[in-house]
Specification:
The complex is a heterodimer of chains A (111) and B (112). Chain A has no helices and eleven strands. Chain A is mainly β and 111 residues long. In chain A, a hairpin with a 5-residue loop joins β4 and β5. Chain B is mainly beta and 112 residues long. Chain B contains no helices and eleven strands. In chain B, strands 2, 4, 5, 6, 9, 10 and 11 form a seven-stranded mixed beta sheet that branches. Chain B is globular and about 40 Å long. Classes of the chains: A mainly beta (111), B mainly beta (112). Chains A and B meet through β4, β5, β9 and β10 of A and β4, β5, β9 and β10 of B.
Chain lengths: 111, 112
């Protein structure tokens, strides 16, 4: 069963706008990670936030974590065409760095 | 450094045939994982290994076997392929004491 549920399933915005994706999960976690997948490629790690952190930044990425609501959000600011990809949240709850992935959000940036 | 490589990139099998997928890494990472990705399902963990000579089951292990005889290689075997195993298979690695997973490019498998 999938731990993470992502919302929306698909998002289409204009270049330069901000994109926000949300992830909800079911059980307690050690950390939550976001990955990007370009079409036909493997996943690439974007950012990790630990259960004792509430917000983290990396370049144009901002991740928040609300453990009381079991939810996280990924904000991409000033979007670019190259940001077009699928974005997955993944939770580490069982140890051994075993990740459980959400179904992903398909982001399209229109020029 | 090649990072994580997967062989083959594409394969078509007939029902009942067997095959082995190879994942190789040159980063000296301790942990290795096999996932499958189906449309609309995200990635699901098949098997994983926390070190040479050790393997463990993930979320969807049925129909698959694995071996990690060498630290740098993680093999995924399908003994008798079924159409339900049509999927894209990804290998990933993690360095001990860290959390970031590094993914290979994937193997697209079709079982007819």
């Amino acid at each position: 069963s999938q731990q993470g549920e992502e919302d929306p399933q698909a998002l289409s915005i204009q270049e330069g706008e901000n994109a926000t994706m949300n992830c909800s999960y079911k059980t307690s976690i050690n950390n939550l990670q976001w990955y990007r997948q370009n079409s036909g490629r493997g996943l690439v790690h974007l950012i990790l936030i630990r259960s004792n952190e509430r917000e983290k930044h990396s370049g144009r990425l901002r991740v928040t974590l609300d453990t009381s609501k079991k939810s996280s959000s990924l904000l991409i600011t000033a979007s670019r065409a190259a940001d077009t990809a699928s974005y997955f949240c993944a939770t580490d709850a069982w140890g051994a760095q075993k990740l459980v992935f959400g179904q992903g959000t398909r982001l399209t940036i229109n020029p | 450094n090649a990072g994580v490589t997967q062989t083959p990139k594409f394969r078509v099998l007939k029902t009942g045939q067997s095959m082995t997928l190879l994942c190789a890494q040159d980063m000296n990472h301790e942990y290795m994982y096999w996932y499958r990705q189906d449309p609309g399902m995200g990635l699901r963990l098949i098997h994983y290994s926390v070190g040479e000579g050790t393997t463990a089951k993930g979320e969807v292990p049925d129909g698959y076997n694995v071996s990690r005889l060498k630290k740098q290689n993680f093999l995924l075997g399908l003994e008798s392929a079924a159409p339900s195993q049509t999927s894209v298979y990804f290998c990933a690695t993690v360095a001990g004491g860290t959390d970031t997973q590094y993914f290979g490019p994937g193997t697209r498998l079709t079982v007819l």
